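Chapter review: from sequence to fold.
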Amino acid sequence: MSQSSDNPLLIYFGGTFNPIHLGHLRLAEDISKQLDTTALHFLPCHIPALKSPPGVSSEVRAHMVLETIADYPNFKLDDRELNRQTPSYTVDTLRELRNEFPNHAIGFVIGMDSLNQLHRWHRYQELLDYCHLIICERPGYTLAPVPEIQTIIDHGRVSDSKQLQQSLHGKLLFIQTRKSDVSSTQVRQQLAQAETSQDLHPKTLTMIQQMGLYR
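The token string follows.
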């Protein structure tokens, strides 16, 4: 077991955020409350490794995140992946964070759908060498990993968020959050049809309308 930490748990929430929507914000709020963290970092990726290119520039997506989270004191933007010209491999980012914060427990947020596909991630075997995984349930998804991932879950699963502070990395915590079936894909479809969406923060919608995005 790695050493324990008296420092605040650092939480990172990655994604394309194309665009950031209310589902993202509610999830981040629920995680912050349940884990009693002082900061949750939104981590937009530049070129997603397992998805098609976003179609909206990294700079615009980062600006949308930054403006949208401005009213949330505990939410921060980490734009390190946007400075890369290569696909955003989570393992590289986590290794970088571990080197920067050697004495902090680090939590990386993923959905149940991502956990089921974790074996497709680049060097997935190394992820827990650098962080804890915080898994959030998503509507329509149940836990159904391949055997290799199930073994990882069985070995590292904990039931109490306080256990994440007892080691710097290596654990998996499943948490219950408000159910939200909104997705960025659905939001883009709404915007293409009506140029508006009830699933966006007003600041996000204003930016999108002013810039003529997703039409």
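Two observations follow directly from the output. The mean pLDDT is 91. Helices lie at 22-35, 58-68, 90-100, 112-116, 147-156, 184-194, 202-211.
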